[in-house]
Amino acid sequence: xxxxxxxxxxxxIAGFDTVIDARSPAEFALDHIPGAINCPVLSDEERVVVxxxxxxxxxxxxxxxxxxxxxxxxxxxxxxxxxxxPIKWRPLVYCWRGGLRSGSMxxxxxxxxxxxQQLAGGYKSFRHHVLERIDTLAPRLDLRVLCxxxxxAKTRVLQALAARGEQVLDLEDFARxxxxxxxxxxxxxQPSQKAFETRIATVLEALDPARPLYVEGESARIGRLSVPxxxxxxxxxxxxxxxxxxxxxxxxxxxxxxxxxxDDREGLAGKMGxxxxxxxxxxxxxxxxWAREADLPRLFAELMALHYDPHYENSQARxxxxxxxxxxVATADLTDAGIDAAAEAVLALASAPLPExxxxxxxARGALSSDRPSA
Length: 375
Fold this sequence. Notes:
By secondary structure, this protein is of the alpha/beta class. It has 15 helices and eleven strands.
């Protein structure tokens, strides 16, 4: 067995065969190192029991009871998930801070004969790495920001670019949200803020910095999640490409893309209620009636005409420094074929010289305001 016992850092993770998260299932679900498997040494319920014992009766009693639980859980993992591992298997184990939970698992795995090691600092060190990578890499990105009025199929164009081998950062996919008041996906909860940032950092680390990265011009928030401030700041400075679709094409697209909203009429009507202050009670009452009737064509048409479109130009100019130098892809077709054609047109723009970018602004960690209406 390898006797090397130098502290293992996040940068060393790729050198191991398997990364094991020894935390509880709830901790693992909140966020974890990409590719890690969950072999909890304590279940969620057991963790509560041990924590309560520690507070009420002290460390010895907590360790006595917890030790039996840990031993039983480790035995189960050895009989199941780890039963087929060869003698030269090299696992890396982590818990919250790199302490007792991962240490106990590493000790057992080493007794078996595997060269198991422990991640120094545990998940907390990985979390620090994620934030550092975003802070460092985001300001250097060669971004192309896809903009466009509501219903311009920006996300679909982004996906079409990815299918053509381009580098993309699909923030709405990572956030499991379409980025508006109506953006919740049915039956799909948003991830934690930490998991959202982990996915962003993972993509940024894998990028070729010599090639452009396409991203949708998002608000500072997507649903309940915040886009990392350094990334928002870089987006605000980057070159813009506008998908300039006709209102008719946009309405047709919205009716297809949000068709599921008609399945929850009361829920949709309730969301319209959030717009009373902006649009007035009479207008919102009309929209709520259409929502209850599942009359999406009339509802979406008025939402575009009265709520989204009037604010579009000003919000883009206010939040994207290069908006006045934007390049546009005009389209009257947002069917699958039209979206593919729009993606090809975006790529054709890549060969043209970029407009001169404004001077970068200083990085800040404060919240940045939204670039589009709250709905």
